[in-house]
Design goal:
alpha+beta; six-stranded antiparallel β-sheet; 19 strands; globular
Length: 536
């Protein structure tokens, strides 16, 4: 994983380029650059695969092409073997080199062969044209901005805002050619709104459970292909517990990290699971009073997020990845994406099958600018490469072939996942109800106290050059009785919260934050080392 920056065009300025790349310093360990007339290219590289030889920007053997690459292609061993059989000779063991060789061999068709989480640019050095690609779900980011005589590309918005020009996202699952003085024209190579549409539904529970187990296990397995310590972001919920259970089985060196108030459900469940597995476990104990305006401001600065709820989740995520970095961990797994695929939100079950499918696909298409953006920025902000096994394209397509009654049954969300791994999951995890990370950590309502300041802080960093902070889609959808079209229209008509809505939110948060003080006055003190009991 890396942070990448490119400036293309006759007005390319090395001083501006260096400032842009410097902004991305937390994303990697070493700075690597190439300066040519009309082409400035650089990476801030996090050394994970072939740490010594995978130097970027990578130039093809014939020196015709240059690659700036952020991400991991997990099937690079298979692609390397195929390309070697076609006559390619490799100078490294890196997936970076495999990506460029695949482009040389198959051109734009190579995107259909990549399995991973990536965003990159291939530049024709003779013409200055660049071919841009972003992975199907948008796990890895890429943005562009234009100034007179220059096209600028970067992994984060913060690298582009000082240019003062509008910032544009490369959408998930898109690719195409750009140059310094013409229109950027990108097109989809994966249609996220039609995933699984032409495949038959899987209606047999036994077959569905077998497919979910096989596909998810394989997705986690390939993401554990590293000789480095693997961290697991563990909330003690179903999804992160599955990631840890597999990591403990398949990788010799892993560590779990949990954040929450000492008495929170997350901490209690996570402590028990890690202890039973014998996995080293780091618990970041925070009290609500530990979250103040500087923590809110820093979370917004790092995350660049544009919905209020995602910013609140970022506040909780930052200490996790800060601690992983302190432990020297550079690769981590998370359980993100499972709720979107397997029905972890009530909205999916309150409408008919066709409407629920549209809701699933809408959320999946927007993950790249919401939940996945939070994961990328808060992890790479501390030099940690996060891998997201629930969002492997094969698993996403499978999930879209499962009817809604496979996802919610007997009042239990993500029913098919629980069934698929019933023999692996401890009973207390398998039966644990869904809790959003930030709520069950015990820290969500504290961050809400600062919610009226989010938009102003966001603008102070220049992030509105991409888009402003807007109301949470889930709340808009709820007010529209889960009518997707009405919710999209309402979000466009009134993107931000009203003063009255903010006031109501502030009152609710203030009431919640006052409750612990009242409890301390009327209840006996607990020892700090005491754990909250798990539900029966």
């Amino acid at each position: 994983m890396c942070g990448i920056v490119l400036t293309l065009g006759p007005e390319a300025d090395p001083a501006i380029f260096r400032r842009m790349l410097g902004t991305l310093a937390p994303r990697g360990e070493v700075t690597e650059t190439r300066y040519e007339t009309g082409l400035l290219a650089g990476t801030r590289r996090l050394r994970v695969v072939d740490r010594d030889r995978a130097v970027q920007p990578w130039v093809s053997a014939d020196e015709r092409l240059l690659l700036c690459y952020n991400g991991e292609v997990f099937n690079h061993h298979e692609l390397r073997a195929e390309l070697s059989g076609l006559g390619h000779r490799f100078r490294s063991a890196s997936d970076t080199e495999v990506v460029l060789a695949a482009f040389e061999q198959w051109g734009e068709q190579m995107v259909g062969r990549l399995r991973g989480e990536y965003a990159f640019a291939v530049v024709e050095r003779a013409t200055g044209r660049a071919y841009l690609v972003r992975d199907p779900l948008g796990v890895k980011p890429l943005y562009w901005s234009r100034t007179p005589g220059c096209l600028h590309l970067a992994s984060e918005v913060k690298a582009l805002v000082r240019l003062g020009a509008p910032v544009v996202e490369v959408p998930p699952g898109h690719h195409g050619w750009v140059d310094a003085d013409r229109q950027v024209q990108l097109r989809p190579y994966v249609d996220l709104l039609s995933l699984g549409a032409n495949a038959p539904l899987v209606t047999d529970p036994d077959e569905a459970a077998r497919l979910v187990r096989t596909t998810l296990t394989d997705s986690i397995r390939i993401r554990l292909d590293t000789d480095l310590t693997v961290g697991v972001v563990l909330s003690g919920g179903l999804d992160s517990s599955l990631a840890l259970l597999h990591a403990a089985q398949l990788h010799p060196d892993c560590v779990a990290v949990t954040v929450g108030v000492p008495e929170s459900p997350d901490v209690a469940y996570a402590r028990r699971l890690a202890r039973e597995l014998g996995v080293p476990h780091e618990v970041i104990e925070l009290r609500p009073r530990d979250i103040r305006l500087p923590e809110i401001r820093e979370a917004i600065r790092i995350s660049e997020l544009t919905e209020y709820g995602d910013i609140i989740n970022a506040v909780v995520s930052v200490p996790i990845f800060r601690r992983l970095a302190e432990l020297g961990v550079k690769v981590a797994l998370t359980g993100d994406g499972s709720d979107e695929l397997f029905g972890g939100y009530p909205m999916y079950h309150e409408v008919g099958p066709e409407a629920s499918r549209r809701l699933f696909l809408h959320r999946i298409r927007n993950l790249g600018r919401t939940e996945l953006q939070r994961v990328d920025r808060t992890s790479m902000g501390f030099g940690v490469e996060t891998r997201v096994p629930f969002l492997d394209l094969a698993l996403v397509e499978l999930a879209m072939r499962l009817p809604i009654d496979m996802k919610m049954r007997d009042g239990q969300e993500k029913w098919i996942v629980r069934r698929a791994f019933a023999d692996l999951l401890p009973d207390y995890i398998r039966r644990r109800p869904k809790n959003p990370m930030s709520y069950s950590s015990g820290l969500h309502e504290r961050a809400r106290l600062y919610k009226p300041l989010f938009a102003r802080l966001h603008r102070s960093f220049g992030y509105h050059l991409l888009e402003p902070v807007r109301r949470d889609f889930d709340s808009v959808l709820m007010r529209c009785d889960n009518d997707l079209d009405a919710a999209i229209a309402a979000g466009r008509a009134r993107p931000d919260y009203t003063v009255l809505e903010h006031a109501r939110d502030l009152v609710g948060a203030a009431r919640w934050n006052a409750a612990p003080m009242v409890r301390r006055l009327v209840s006996p003190r607990r020892n700090r080392g005491d754990e909250a009991p798990l539900p029966g």
